[in-house]
UniProtKB/TrEMBL annotation:
Database matches in PANTHER family: GTP-DEPENDENT DEPHOSPHO-COA KINASE, UPF0218 PROTEIN TK1697
The protein's name: GTP-dependent dephospho-CoA kinase
Pfam families (alphabetical): DUF359
Function: Catalyzes the GTP-dependent phosphorylation of the 3'-hydroxyl group of dephosphocoenzyme A to form coenzyme A (CoA).
Length: 179
């Protein structure tokens, strides 16, 4: 008889091929100039900043702003100066082209923490699609920044409209047991 611990089972939400081009387009405001990005972020000073990606996280830190939550994968080999920040460090596994339920759960947990401590999640794999659970579980008014390759930084402000749009996309993902 085989005994399994199902609490260790993880599920994967697989991105359908037909949605890949749709998700490659920027959702939100594309900033190609860091000065304009800084002015925009300062104008929204009561909003939590959430960064997804090494380059955009480093850009925000270089602008002397502290993200509430950062998701990085270390693939651009960026170094982050963490001396001036109180940090909660976490790790999740998340392969390209999917979103692991365990990653969703960790993101949800971190978004619910109401503290000034900055949180950094190191993603073993790829962090790009993790914008989806951030939109779903983030607060209205949260600002998500993610990189648009060869273009700049995209700013997405969470509200009910964008949350509904993202949920509509997410319901098209296929669910399988992760290996």
């Amino acid at each position: 008889m085989e005994i399994r611990d199902y609490s260790q089972v993880d599920y994967c939400f697989i991105l359908p091929q037909e949605l890949r081009n749709q998700l490659a387009k920027p959702y939100g405001i594309l900033f190609t100039n860091n000065t304009e990005l800084l002015h925009f972020l300062i104008s929204r000073k009561n909003s939590r900043i959430i960064t997804v990606g090494d380059v955009v996280t480093k850009t925000v830190l270089d602008l002397n702003l502290t993200p509430f939550l950062s998701l990085v994968d270390g693939k651009t080999r960026r170094k982050f100066n963490t001396e001036k920040r109180t940090i909660v460090m976490e790790r999740v596994k998340n392969e390209a082209g999917l979103i692991r339920l365990s990653a969703i759960s960790k993101i949800k947990e971190l978004l619910e923490i109401d503290s000034d401590a900055s949180k950094v999640v190191y993603v073993e794999g790829e962090e790009d699609l993790l914008v989806i659970p951030i939109v779903i579980y983030g607060k209205d008014g949260d600002i998500i920044l993610y990189g648009q390759p060869y273009a700049g930084a995209v700013v997405l402000i969470i509200d009910d409209l964008i949350r509904r749009r993202v949920m509509e996309i997410f319901t098209k993902f296929r669910i399988v047991k992760c290996e």
